[in-house]
Amino acid sequence: xxxxxxxxxxxxxxxxxxxxxxxxxxxxxxxxxxxxxxxxxxxxxxxxxxxxxxxxxxxxxxxxxxxxxxxxxxxxxxxxxxxxxxxxxxxxxxxxxxxxxxxxxxxxxxxxxxxxxxxxxxxxxxxxxxxxxxxxxxxxxxxxxxxxxxxxxxxxxxxxxxxxxxxxxxxxxxxxxxxxxxxxx
Length: 185
Known about the structure:
Elements (H helix, E strand, L loop, with lengths): L1 E2 L2 H4 L2 H16 L6 E2 L3 H5 L2 H8 L3 E4 L7 H8 L3 H9 L4 E6 L2 E6 L4 H7 L3 H13 L4 H6 L35 H6 L2
Parallel strand pairs: 1-2
Antiparallel strand pairs: 3-4, 4-5
Helix pairs in contact: 2-4
């Protein structure tokens, strides 16, 4: 996983390494995820475009009006896909995998949401809750809570994480309750 991939692509040496790495990983049946908040930064470099061309799957989320023309051209988006990306809500995305294209909404469980939020107001609320109640569920994340705890959650919270027919926990079956559908989590 490479977050803020544009930083690597800004350096010719690092960008060349990233392209070689991406090609090597595909041959080894491994994956590389490049994450950036501005696809235009990746498309601005020859190597960035080549990395995208070597990607089997791309996921695009909301795009700024200033960059949509570049993104639409690079990914050959239809007018509907372009409109969808301009108006996408939090969690809405467009999956591109070969000739398959599908719009989807990524809905995080409550635990996933609170474990990954970067909203400053929410982070302050988490810190305040942890200070006021050291035994709270919120504090478990601050203590390095084990993500494997998700497997132990019952359906009380509206989610079923592992299929009963899958004792190894490989198939994830997440049933989203009405509350999270309505809040966009």
